[in-house]
Write a structure and sequence with these properties.
Layout (H helix, E strand, L loop, with lengths): L4 H10 L4 H16 L8 E4 L3 H17 L3 H7 L6 E5 L26 H8 L3 E6 L33 H8 L5 E6 L5 H7 L2 E4 L19 E6 L2 H11 L31 E5 H4 L6 H16 L3 E5 L7 H16 L18 H12 L2 H14 L8 H18 L5 E5 L15 H5 L6 H6 L2 E9 L5 E8 L4 H15 L10
Parallel strand pairs: 2-3, 2-4, 7-8, 7-9
Antiparallel strand pairs: 1-3, 4-6, 5-6, 5-10, 9-11, 10-11
Helix pairs in contact: 2-3, 8-17, 11-13, 11-14
Length: 498
C-alpha cells in the first residue's frame, strides 16, 4: 500500500488495513533499521502509547462503520489513524523534549504544542521524536548530542538540517509525514537533500506555542511529506489563530487547503527568478541543470518567466545571521541550570553553577552562536550590527513584497549544492552557514516556500527547487506543486512501500 495520507485514509475506510497494523509496520521498520550497519538515526524515541492510540482509532472506525457514519467521522477527523514524526523541539505532553542537547536530558514536556494538539484532534498519531541539530542550529543534523542522522538515499551523506531526523524518517517511510521547524531553511534543506516535499509556511500560519525558540521572529513549524496533498492536509489541520501565540494568524483559511486540486491557469502564471541566485558562483552544475529543467517546465506550460533584480538579497545571509544569532543568545539565556534541565553545581555559587551547566550542557555550535549573538547585542556593537541587520531585513521585506505585486511565484534552487558527505563541513562553520544562501531570505521576508523534489545529480542525489509565494499564498503554491507532482511522480523517488 502507499504510505500517503490519502491512500491510508482510503485503506482505513475500506477495511483494507488498520491503523494499528500501520503503526506496527512503521515501528518494525525503525527497529530493524537501528540494527543495520549504518542506521539512519532518524528517531530518538518511539512513543510508548502510539500503538494504543492507533488501536483507539481503529475502534472509532469500527464503531462508525457499524453505524454507517464513516464519512462524517473522517470529515471530523481527516487524519484519523495517520502516524507522524515529531521533531525533538516540539512539545508532546508527558514525553521527553531535549532539542538534541545534553542540557535538556531527561526533561519532560508539561503540555502539548498547539500544532501537536491540533493534529491529534484531527486523529493523527505522534509516532515518536526525531533527531535534529542541537537547538535547531545547523544545516546537516550533525550537531546533535545523539549523533548524526544519515541520508536514506545514500547513507554516506547528510540528511540536511536542522530537521534532518523528521525528514529522513519520512523519506525512509518510517513515518507518513513529519513536523520540522524552520529558522533559515531547516525544513527545505533536508527536504531537498532527501527527495521529499518540505513546506515553510508564512510566518504566523502555524502557532509556535510549545515549540522551543531559536530565533523568535524567524521560527516557523514546517511540514515534510511525500505529496503536496499530504502537506496540504496536515497544514489544514494545524493552521489558524491560537490564543497562546500572539503572532499567529487566521490565514490562510483551512477550507482552501483540505482538498488541493491542480492549478487551472498555469499559462497565466508570472514567474520571477532572482538574478542574484542565477549569478551565484557556488552553484553546483547538477543543481543548475535541474533548475534549468524546472524553469523549462514552467515555460512549456505557457508561464511568463522573468529574471528580476533584487540587489538586497546579496546581504540576506549577513542580515540573517546577525538577527538569528542575537535572538538565539537571548532565548537560550533561560537554560541556566536553575529552573529546569541539566544542573552542574560545583557548590561555588550561582555564577559558577551557571557557567558549568552551560559549558557542559551546550555543544560547540550552540556555544559559537551564543557568543556571536551576545557580541552582536553588546552595548558597543548593537548599533552597528543588530540595528543595521534590522534595517536590511526591512528592505528585504519591502523588495520581496514588491516582486509579488507583479508575479505569482518566485523560483530558485533550495541549496547551491546537493547533500554533502558526513563530516565534510562539520568543522567549517562558514561553509555550513552558506548552505542557507538561497533559503534564509524567505524567513526574513516571512513568505512561504515549498521545496519540491525536482531531479537528481549524476550520483543519484536528490535536488529540490523552491516554489516561493507571497505571504499566505500556501493554497496557490500547493496547487502548482500538485500539477508538478502529477507529471513527475516524485522525480524518481518512490512514494510506495509494499
Amino acid at each position: 500500500m502507499k504510505y500517503t495520507i490519502t491512500d491510508i485514509r482510503n485503506a482505513l475506510q475500506s477495511g483494507e488495513t488498520t491503523s494499528a497494523d500501520i503503526v506496527k509496520k512503521l515501528i518494525a521498520a525503525v527497529e530493524a533499521d537501528t540494527k543495520s550497519s549504518e542506521p539512519l538515526n532518524a528517531f530518538l524515541e518511539l512513543y510508548d502509547d502510539a500503538l494504543a492510540k492507533a488501536e483507539a482509532a481503529d475502534a472509532e472506525i469500527a464503531e462508525a462503520r457499524k453505524n454507517g457514519a464513516l464519512k462524517s467521522l473522517f470529515e471530523k477527523k481527516p487524519l484519523l489513524g495517520v502516524p507522524f514524526a515529531n521533531k525533538d523541539n516540539i512539545s508532546v505532553k508527558g514525553k521527553r523534549l531535549t532539542c538534541a542537547s545534553k542540557i535538556l536530558e531527561g526533561y519532560i514536556a508539561p503540555y502539548d504544542a498547539t500544532v501537536v494538539a491540533r493534529l491529534e484532534n484531527a486523529g493523527a498519531i505522534p509516532l515518536g521524536r526525531c533527531n535534529q541539530d542541537e537547538f535547531a542550529m545547523g544545516s546537516s543534523t550533525e550537531y546533535s548530542s545523539y549523533g548524526a542522522t544519515r541520508n536514506p538515499v545514500n547513507r554516506a551523506y547528510v540528511s540536511g538540517g536542522s530537521s534532518g531526523g523528521s525528514t529522513a524518517a519520512v523519506a525512509a517511510h518510517q513515518a507518513v509525514f513529519g513536523l520540522g521547524t524552520e529558522t533559515g531553511g531547516s525544513v527545505r534543506l533536508p527536504a531537498s537533500y532527501c527527495g521529499v516535499y518540505g513546506l515553510k509556511p508564512t510566518y504566523g500560519t502555524l502557532s509556535r506555542w510549545g515549540v522551543v525558540a531559536y530565533g523568535s521572529s524567524l521560527d516557523q513549524v514546517g511540514i515534510l511529506a511525500h505529496t503536496p496533498s499530504d502537506v496540504a492536509a496536515s497544514l489544514a489541520a494545524m493552521c489558524g489563530k491560537d490564543f497562546y501565540d500572539d503572532t499567529s494568524s487566521d490565514m490562510p483559511r483551512a477550507e482552501l487547503l483540505r482538498d488541493v486540486q491542480q492549478y487551472e491557469t498555469m499559462s497565466a502564471l508570472r514567474v520571477a527568478i532572482p538574478r542574484q541566485f542565477l549569478e551565484s558562483k557556488g552553484l553546483d552544475a547538477d543543481v543548475a541543470a535541474v533548475f534549468d529543467q524546472t524553469r523549462a517546465w514552467f515555460a512549456d506550460k505557457g508561464a511568463a518567466i522573468d529574471v528580476v533584480d533584487i540587489p538586497v538579497l546579496d546581504a540576506a545571509v549577513a542580515s540573517y545571521y546577525v538577527l538569528a544569532l542575537a535572538e538565539a543568545a537571548s532565548n537560550l539565556s533561560r537554560f541556566d541550570g536553575i529552573r529546569y534541565g541539566r544542573r552542574v553545581d560545583p557548590g561555588e555559587g550561582y555564577d559558577e553553577l551557571y557557567v558549568q551547566t552551560r559549558s557542559e550542557g551546550f555543544g560547540p555550535e550552540v556555544k559559537r552562536r551564543i557568543v556571536i549573538g551576545n557580541y552582536v547585542l553588546s552595548e558597543q556593537f548593537s548599533g552597528d550590527t543588530y540595528k543595521k541587520g534590522m534595517t536590511v531585513r526591512a528592505r528585504i521585506q519591502r523588495d520581496v513584497a514588491a516582486v509579488f505585486e507583479t508575479y505569482d511565484i518566485m523560483l530558485c534552487p533550495v541549496c547551491p549544492t546537493p547533500a554533502f558527505k558526513l563530516g565534510q563541513k562539520v568543522d567549517d562553520p562558514l561553509a555550513m552557514y552558506l548552505s542557507d544562501l538561497f533559503t534564509n531570505f524567505v524567513n526574513l521576508a516571512r513568505n512561504t516556500s515549498l521545496s519540491v523534489p525536482a531531479g537528481v545529480t549524476k550520483e543519484g542525489l536528490p535536488v529540490g527547487i523552491q516554489f516561493i509565494g507571497a505571504m499566505f499564498s500556501e493554497p496557490k503554491i500547493l496547487q502548482i506543486a500538485h500539477v508538478w507532482e502529477n507529471e513527475h511522480a516524485g522525480c524518481g523517488f518512490p512514494i510506495a512501500v509494499e
